[in-house]
Amino acid sequence: MLLVVLCATVVGMELFSQYQEIRDFKEAHPDIQEFQKLHPDEKVPTFKLPRFLSQANLVNTGNLIGLFGIFSIGVGMVIITGGIDLSIGSMIALNGMLLVLALTEWHWPWPLAALFALAVPMLLGLGHGLLITRFKMQPFIVTLCGLLLYRGFARRISHDTTKGFGDAAGFKTLQFLAGGKFLGLPMPFVILIVIAIIMWIVLHRSVYGRYLFAVGRNEEATRFSGVNTQWVVASTYILAGLLTGISGILFAFYTNSVSPSTHGNFYELYGIAAAVLGGCSLRGGEGSVVGILIGTTLLLVLQNLVNLLGIDSSLNFAVMGAVVLVGVLADQLFQARSAKKNARQPK
Amino acid sequence: MTTAPLLEMRGISKGFPGVKALDNVSLTIGRGEVVAICGENGAGKSTLMKILGGVHQPDAGEILIDGQPVKINGVNNSIRLGIAFIHQELNVLGNLDVAANVFLGREPKNALGLIDRKKIHATTSPFIRQLGLEVSTRTRLDNLSIAQQQMVEIAKALSLNSRLIIMDEPTSSLTLTETKRLLELVCELSEQGVSIAYISHRLGEIEECADRVVVLRDGKNAGELTHGEASHDRLVNLMVGREIKNFYVQPSGTKTPGYFKVRNASSSLHPGKNVSFDAARGEILGFAGLVGAGRSEMAKAISGLEDSPQQEIILDGQPLSIGSPRDAIDHGIYLAPENRRTEGLVVEMTVRENISLPSLENFSSLGLINRKHERKIAAEQVKSLNVKTPGIETRVLNLSGGNQQKVVLGKWLAMTPKVMILDEPTRGIDVGAKAEIYRLMRELADGGAVILMISSDMEEILNVSDRIAVMHEGEISGVLERADCREENVMQLAVGKKIPAAKPAFVN
User: What count of CB pairs under 8 Å joins A to B?
Assistant: First the structure.
């Protein structure tokens, strides 16, 4: 709902500014034919397709939704079990850097490089999972340390210099998989849809998905029901690692080069914001794949709006923050109201 | 001399949308009188007490204190009128010490505007001593037992000069000795002129300590009994409004001794101690003891929830290796734990999701849940256990305690229990649901299961068990046969004394 309103707002605001332009022009030049005779080179403003709906813009936004959506689903799974993953952005940087190095400097065959770029974040995820379940450390702390550590690694292995794919050859297939188009749709968007369908089934139809929700609501009671809750929790960090790995590869090709100190900065916050906006509760036990997709789309459309409407881009984060805040507050108030209603019903 | 009673509530009515919680209810409490308030869940006890505590305001009726009409608009108002409310879930802060808890929200300040620590400790200690609590006022609350924390709440009530203390299910988390001590204290307080409104489901306690029992049913006064008149049967009849036959069900099935053997079950609570016993197929073996005797820990060890390295478990002659809760469940050993809401159920999830949680893998293929099968199983359990719920998609949170407990049982009965361990199965559950649960336990036993029932409710343990194993500090101090199941025997064994009636827990 919010998403439709937002898109309509963008289109509406664009149309309105076009209308203003035309109106102002008409006021200044009441006789348009006269004006055209006098100034044959100048264009008369007319209504155009709003830029938001232009193909280029839609393709680009779709591409970004794909890139961000994939890891947001991973973050969402972690959040559903009541955890958090702050290391996503740094993992994307480390992952991208390893991929670039493997392909351009170590000259690995691309399937090996891609597997490597998926295995590393999964192993890191396993590490997070073990620290959290076996050593009872708090997810916030474990993944915060991850955020700092992996950024450091990424900078160290690249000697803090930007590395690009340049014109190195031999991984055309991977380039196509990451940056090509399928039926006119950008590849990352297509991959996101495939992953979303799989994850929807996993989360909402499988035994494992049920365990995720149960652990997020009440880990103790779930353990008493014979579920290996430690493994369930740890597995979500591995899953988040896998999805981050996939989107990390796509990001590397999207930017075509990786600057170790800025690549992927704050992406974990996009993921968390998207999940929360999409109805995941940081207390755990709540959320849906569709919600996370909507959350991601909302955030990226919002960014698009900031660009298109010429709002100062320094306000980018502020706008995002405000929308997440309002969105979650509205949700909270709505829930409090329905809870009250429920409480009033006789038992 | 004033003749007016301390408290008089006349014609109190209170409605919530869709339900009339209280309908023209009256209650009188004299000075120093202990009045027990009884009724099934939903009878209106809590609403009535919440009106006294200032949480709810009545729609109609009047409240008089010392014969003067008063309005109780809020919690503070109620405190000022000398009413203290001790909730079932204690309102104490574990990270503060005793004195700080007693003075919470009304801390005296010294010249610097800081808390006058000397004063709060000096003021608190006489109350602590009066209650016979042997702790320093500087002890942090989370280092105290539940019973001691409750005493701190009572000390707080006394320090506020309360004249009426409302106790809501005060003994639900207490051990037998602690319960005894609390009941003595209730008498002492009443001798000192403090009135007590005592809410409990445990009829034995009510018979023992109440000067008068007020019974509510469906939001109305159902009747009153004096101390002499209050008996178990009369109370139950008044509460339910009909006679409950066969409250305790007698066994009819055959027993196979030695069917289930436990050797050397241990827990970290009592290092170096262990528990061994034999239980017969078809029997209900009760486990009595003080809180901290290690009964729940033993149950967890048997269920693979706690490390118990030396443990051997033999079921029907087969030694089992149990290293995780899953192993125990796969062998048909199920635990309905003590804390329904934190361990037994995922309360925010639906009845269906809770019932299917342990057996989910039995009706899924390729990791996907067969939803039709899941719904069918949940619906079957709801029907056979007579769970009162609008439907299987209702969140467990919205059910009453008795129905929640039935959902816990439904989780396990959806599979076939060979050994069913029930830890405090009827805590906080009303009389009607209790009877159903006792009947169910007996049916399970007669059907060939082993039932281990841990209970701190003396009446329950004496009447439901076929034999009673009494635990003391991590070990079984003796087992009582049916004929020897008497309160004094249980109490002696619970404090670790040897008595001739006690039999060994197992034969090799």
Answer: 86
